[in-house]
Design a protein that fits this description.
single chain; about 280 residues; alpha+beta; 7-stranded mixed sheet; two-stranded antiparallel sheet; 11 strands; about 50% helix
């Protein structure tokens, strides 16, 4: 029984040796620097296996910490960063293009030709708006509270913008009550606000045409006379126009001075980045 088991074990051992010998030979030829471990005698007298390989140590010293794996990772990281920055550059260019299109195409059609008289008696048209940013408010001088509040807010915003950019924003007040808002009356009224505020008035037809161009609603009570005490119902907005005379934004009663200043600054900076100038 034991001899039969022994013969079977020897046969299996021979078969295994015949099977794996070619692979071992190929491995030796593939790794020429490989040297079998040699037994050495340690200080304790026991036999030990020596793992010292001069050629292997030399190769390791030549390569240093920059191993093939590290080199591959470095190349992969560099390639990834290159494609990321290319993608980010393309994304920013597309975003800039969309912003330019939204400002040029998506704007409301506000504004147009008009001709009125300024508080100093000079004629003023839409061409006088060109070359400067404008904030335009429609109201009337006999307005008890809303108009003065909005003009105060607009004047404060212009004063704050002057500190950063100088006088590049022109404040304008257009009357929706031309029957009572004569040139002398407009001159007295605008003097209470920003020193550069221009007051514009005219006859009823001129005021109506200008309001229509700027999509401003106003309504005077029927049958009123210039000396009567009445209120004019009108839109409560002031409009932000660019140096080309195109509409940018409308600020309502809920908008604060800070809102106006921040919005104007953002538009001025975008204009400067695109055109190389502030106006």
């Amino acid at each position: 029984m034991n001899s039969s088991i022994l013969r079977r074990s020897l046969r299996l051992t021979n078969l295994a040796a015949q099977r794996w010998q070619p692979q071992a030979v190929r491995a030796i030829h593939r790794f020429p620097h490989y040297q079998p471990c040699k037994p050495t005698v340690g200080v304790s007298g026991r036999r030990q296996l020596s793992t010292h390989n001069p050629d292997r140590q030399k190769d390791k010293a030549a390569v240093g910490v920059f191993s093939p794996t590290a080199a591959a990772l470095f190349v992969l990281a560099g390639t990834g960063l290159y494609f990321y920055f290319q993608w980010e550059k393309q994304r920013l260019q597309e975003q800039k293009q969309r912003e330019m299109e939204s400002r040029s195409v998506g704007r409301a059609q506000v504004g147009g030709p008009f001709e009125m008289t300024a508080h100093d008696g000079k004629q003023f048209t839409e061409k006088d708006l060109l070359g400067k940013w404008s904030l335009i408010y429609f109201g009337f001088t006999n307005c008890p509270d809303i108009c003065p509040e909005e003009l105060d807010k607009m004047s404060a915003a212009v004063t704050e913008l002057d500190k950063t950019y100088g006088p590049i924003v022109q404040p304008i007040f257009i009357s929706v009550d031309p029957a009572r808002d004569t040139i002398p009356q407009m001159a007295r009224y605008v003097a209470d606000f920003h020193p550069r505020l221009i007051g514009l008035t005219g006859d009823y037809a001129t005021a109506k045409a200008t309001c229509k161009a700027y999509r401003v609603y106003f309504s005077t009570p029927p049958g009123t006379k210039p000396g009567d005490d009445y209120l004019v119902d009108h839109s409560i907005f002031f409009y932000f126009m660019d140096p080309d005379g195109k509409f940018v934004e409308a600020f309502g009663k809920a908008s604060t001075e800070v809102d106006v200043v921040e919005r104007v600054k953002r538009e001025v900076e975008q204009w400067k980045a695109e055109k190389g100038r502030m106006t």
